[in-house]
Amino acid sequence: MNISKEDIIGAVVAADYRAASVFELAGVDFCCNGNRSIETACNEKGIATEDLVRRLQQTLDAPAAVGNIDYASWPPDLLADFIEKKHHRYVTAQVPVIQSLLEKIVRVHGDRHPELAEIKTEFDACAGELTAHMKKEELMLFPFIRKMTVANQAGNHGISAAFGSIRNPINVMIHEHDTEGERFRRIRQLSNGYTVPEDACGTYRAAFATLQAFAEDLHLHIHLENNILFPKSVEMERTR
Fold it and tell me: Could you give the maximum distance between any two Cα atoms of the chain, in Å?
């Protein structure tokens, strides 16, 4: 894959997820704001475009690790199943764990680290909104994507949905992704990149490590939807 400054970030990561780590290290959002060109993102961040393109090319030219997953080759219904069973279940399992850890460290360390209360407020808001967001996908959007995939494979192009074009719920989901992406940018800033202070206890370290892992999973989760599943679904609707 030859990388150029005009390439769209989300499309690059969709083609080879190894590019995500390069964008992540450069502080370039590849999931919620993946619809920009590399050059545009670099200009916004004050990054040398040529350097980032070179690093991307070096990363993607290296031999791929065994087990590197080509999500872009998956049909939409399989991708929806994977997102729901892996990422949605991960969110559901980890939210109460992180909330409990944050509650403890706010209580014990909040006086010396007032930013912890802000982090907890941001995460609690994320937990509520993300839970509702996933339910909308599980009950409305993903079932229709599965139905449309099966119908298209069978040559049945007459199916319709109460919400009209699939672009309508997808636009809502993307807007909600943007909101959560902004929340986690704020959490990252408040936590100094999930860096624990010298007086941090074990619970403090566990809270930040778990919070960082949650953010990383959410980045992949949103990327799979914004940059692969949603474009595939819109294209599937267009061609039926």
Answer: 64
List beta partners, residue 37: 8
Q: Is residue 55 part of a domain?
A: yes
If asked whether residues 98 and 140 sit together in one domain, one would say yes
The token duo for 230 is 């949603």
Report d(CA 42, CA 203) in Å as an integer.
37
pTM of the model: 0.83
Alpha helices in the chain (DSSP H): 9-15, 19-26, 38-45, 49-61, 76-82, 89-109, 115-136, 142-153, 167-190, 202-223, 230-239
Q: Token match 């949605």: residue?
A: 88
**Position 66 in a domain:** no
Report CA-CA distances (Å) from 85 to 53, 134, 144, 147, 233: 34, 11, 17, 18, 19
Distance in angstroms (rounded) separating the CA atoms of residues 114 and 46: 31
pLDDT at 156 over 80: no
Which of 17, 36, 61 is the last residue in one of the domains?
61
Q: Tell me if 4 sits within 8 A of 153, measured CB to CB.
A: no
* Nearest by Cα to 17 from 216, 237, 179, 167: 216
Cα dihedral 47/48/53/56 (nearest 10): -50
Residues 174-184, mean pLDDT to the nearest whole number: 94
- CA 198 to each of CA 99, 103, 111, 112: distance values in angstroms, whole numbers, following the listed order: 22, 20, 15, 12
Dump pLDDT digits (tens) for 195-233: 999 988 999 999 999 999 999 999 999 999 999 999 999
